[in-house]
Request: fold
Amino acid sequence: VSSPAAPFGARLARAAEERQTVLCLGLDPRPELLPAEVWGGVRRGPAGTARAVERFCSGVLEAAAEQAVAVKPQLAFFEALGHPGLAALERLTAEARQRGLLVVLDGKRGDVPTTSAAYADAYLRSHGAPPLGDALTVSPYLGADSLEPFVDAGRDEGGGVFVLVRTTNAASDDLQELKLARGGRVWEHVAALVDRLGAPSANGSLSSVGAVVGANQPQVLARARELMPHAPFLLPGVGAQGGAVDGLGPAFAPGPGGGLVSVSRSVLYPEPDPARPLPWRDAVRAAAEVLRTRAWELAVSGA
Amino acid sequence: VSSPAAPFGARLARAAEERQTVLCLGLDPRPELLPAEVWGGVRRGPAGTARAVERFCSGVLEAAAEQAVAVKPQLAFFEALGHPGLAALERLTAEARQRGLLVVLDGKRGDVPTTSAAYADAYLRSHGAPPLGDALTVSPYLGADSLEPFVDAGRDEGGGVFVLVRTTNAASDDLQELKLARGGRVWEHVAALVDRLGAPSANGSLSSVGAVVGANQPQVLARARELMPHAPFLLPGVGAQGGAVDGLGPAFAPGPGGGLVSVSRSVLYPEPDPARPLPWRDAVRAAAEVLRTRAWELAVSGA
Reply:
């Protein structure tokens, strides 16, 4: 590292302002949903599928990068293609960066400290080349020392961490909503941990330790913002119709960079409009544009 | 899948009996600890390091496979080498299987259901070739529906799942030991979930849904066995001296396959004995042999 990088929180806040968007483009490439075009000349099998996936994601970046401040590759879909999938991911993250996007790797990693350090090496540290990601999602079940190696790598490299706090899936209550004997819920306890881990980097503005908070429960979002006043929120769960966007206000209390509105399926595979059929890249761009506009209006008015 | 595979619990129980061992060989290849020999002719950088790591792990398998029933590659150390690391992992898992070992992939994955399904595809489902792993470690923070896709893939393929329940790291108390308003601790609640998820596959014997339970706290182990009578336990935290092995009795209540004694550093990088210096492969084999013998005595007497 030649010179200390700007902290992730500051980079995110600046990029959102400059690009006038808080959209985070989720790359969840599902082979069964890819347009026919990207399969041209490739053979089925992991290497061929990885090639088609790379073409598709590259097309999505070309179509929609201007609408977004960040891109969020879901590692599972690349790992499912074996090492050719990971090679495709490596090229795509470089391409996203060239287009000025922050790269949030969605891996939900977390392990004992020495192993978390190896994951941080893999995803957040530079090795001659820049780090694969500007940020990584991590899982808190092992406690603070399992998260610190990610926070440390982020501090060294200008990278960030998004800790799972309150997720959108149906069974997320199983653990996250359990009531504690001392008061509060499990997720609120995790939120306090996130706030503590991020405090040194917050410095009165956006911290570099963020939280994944489902966008589908407005009352949760308000409470999360109370508990983590400086954390950037990664907000999954916004649908194609953008209805849920309206409930996201509290996320933007610390400024537009306080909320990354994460959209995947609704932008990657938009419902075709029979009255106005579009080539797939144009449909992706149009879907991203609608969501970008709604989210940005809210981000600015909430700030 | 041509014919339904035997359930993972049954395969594990049989393999332990046949091989007379409950040792699980953790592959945590740390570049800075590899013997000089494996670096011969390779260049530094991810591809060269991946080559050295592959030679090392292959040498470990050659030296110690007979002492073990399973091998547990820690995915973080392979991911840290980028796609060449993953390619090395793919070849090593095939080699381990040829040596008759079960492959437990240590990835601590867990995400919303559709994404967990993609991880299950990556690691537990066959695609022409056999699945990369016979089992995968998973993290429970997102709740039951985040774990079910792994359980489902395991049922289809004869594979297993080890859910993080109680870990060995210093800060594991942060979440896992929180007291719940309704009684019990967070980890006990997760243990009950593991028992429920594994019930259909247990069928009076060892289930295919296991638990990661730190081997460093005997009182926790006894309670964990009460809560999960049929789950195989993956037991990290046993040191080179084997002292902790003596506390593992409760793990083996359902039979020798009830406990996989996971050792990594103490076998991969044994302290050299100045009185009897050994070539590295011989040192690995000797360290594995000591632990195998102690653990097997306990597994049989506890059964």
Remarks:
- The CA atoms of residues 162 and 258 of chain A lie 12 Å apart.
- Strands of chain A lie at 23-27, 70-73, 102-109, 135-138, 160-166, 209-213, 233-235, 259-263.
- The mean pLDDT of chain A is 93.
- Chain A is about 45% helix and 15% strand.
